[in-house]
TrEMBL record:
It comes from the Bacteria. One of its GO terms (molecular function) is DNA-binding transcription factor activity. One of its GO terms (biological process) is DNA-templated transcription initiation. Transmembrane segments: none annotated. Belongs to the SorC transcriptional regulatory family. Keywords: DNA-binding, Transcription, Transcription regulation. Residues 45-77 form the RNA polymerase sigma-70 region domain. InterPro entries: NagB/RpiA_transferase-like, RNA_pol_sigma70_r4, SorC_transcr_regulators, Sugar-bd_dom_put, WH-like_DNA-bd_sf. Residues 91-343 form the Sugar-binding domain. This is Putative sugar-binding region.
Length: 351
């Protein structure tokens, strides 16, 4: 018995076979489309992954050269093939060497540029994660700052070697920072990736006044955690710029107007989220002076390997100031930032 569903949702029996023929026709069309996609994918894989020439591909599938060329173009147009032009590693090596020599660094980690900020951040963070994987050893202590760049390191650890390390918060937390940026959550994620332990700093990052900071700093629990952070073998810190989209504005530490005023007074950025500097690496006075619970720049000087991360290309001036402070041992940034930093250094160097 033939049955066809009507447009109103009912059915009638002994219906004509027209709809069945349409279904068969549609099925044939779908199969041909799937077959075309399979052919296009196979041609693209042979050409791009196995370096088979277009002429050889044409002979293998009994196609014309023009047909092969059209399939390869279609593969690019439809997103099956993505073509990326990367900077040659030798160019990055030259930039890394230039930064190391100019600023007396131990090392520089330079990532190629990406137009998408998240992809850019992941590229820089991957270099830092790989560096940790090669450098960490049992018993090491890593002091961890806050921010998106530091947080991205924990999310870009691949095939880690298990280490018996301790990741300890180097600054207090903030509810407005969220899990991704808070040092406590970053420490936990790093410990999970590397199989180590994490230690929380049970204190807010920013308090109302210096008197309250003094009280909390003297608390046994807070003092014990910060003491461990001060004894760290390595520190992971972010470099902040003075933009209206900065972490300080998002967390409510500064208003956009206060950030603009700080820029006018010569402040170019911060390290650890609160130690503000000018382009010459000198301390800059700000409204949260003496109100942050965490390691200071002076305490960072005592840590053997301070790894500073700046993925955004808006942070060249801030990164230059941080480099001139002398605190940084390892810099992780982008190709564009590296070029801009070197040019800015030439243009603003004091005689």
């Amino acid at each position: 018995m033939n049955r066809e569903w009507t447009a109103q949702g009912g059915s009638r029996e002994n219906a004509p076979l027209t709809s069945k023929r349409k279904l068969v026709h549609m099925s044939d069309s779908t199969q041909r489309m799937a077959s075309d996609i399979d052919l296009m994918t196979e041609v693209a894989m042979l050409y791009y992954l196995e370096n088979v020439t277009q002429e050889a591909i044409a002979k293998r599938f009994d196609l014309s050269r023009a047909k092969v060329s059209r399939l390869l173009k279609r593969a690019r147009d439809e997103g099956i093939v993505e073509v990326r032009v990367l900077q040659h590693p030798a160019m990055n090596n030259e930039l890394e060497l230039a930064l190391v020599e100019r600023f007396q660094l131990d090392r520089a980690l330079i990532a190629v540029d990406h137009s998408d900020p998240d992809t850019q951040r992941s590229a820089v963070a991957s270099l830092v994660a790989n560096y940790l994987n090669k450098t960490l050893s049992d018993g090491m202590i890593v002091a961890v700052g806050m921010g998106r760049n530091v947080g991205a390191v924990a999310d870009n650890v691949f095939l880690p070697v298990t280490r018996n390390c301790t990741f300890v918060c180097a600054i207090g937390g903030s509810l407005k920072a969220g899990e991704y940026m808070n040092p406590d959550h970053i420490c936990r994620r790093l410990a999970l990736r590397f199989g180590g332990e994490s230690e929380s700093l049970y204190a807010p990052a920013l308090v109302a006044n210096p008197e309250l900071r003094s009280i909390l700093i003297s608390n046994d629990t807070v003092r014990s955690t910060l003491d461990r952070a001060r004894r760290a073998d390595m520190a992971l810190i972010g470099i902040g710029d003075m933009s209206e989209n900065s972490n300080m504005v998002r967390m409510g530490w500064f208003s956009p107007q206060e950030i603009a005023q700080a820029r006018l007074s010569g402040t170019v950025g911060d390290m650890m989220g609160y130690d503000f500097i000018d382009i010459h690496g000198q301390p800059a006075v700000n409204a949260i002076q003496g109100r942050v619970i965490g390691l200071t720049v002076q305490e960072l000087f005592r840590i053997p390997d301070v790894v500073a991360i700046a993925s955004e290309n808006t942070k060249a001036a801030a990164t230059l100031g941080a480099l001139r402070s002398g605190v940084i041992n390892t810099l992780a940034t982008t190709v564009t930032n590296a070029h801009t930093i070197l040019a800015l250094d030439d243009a603003t160097r004091k005689n």
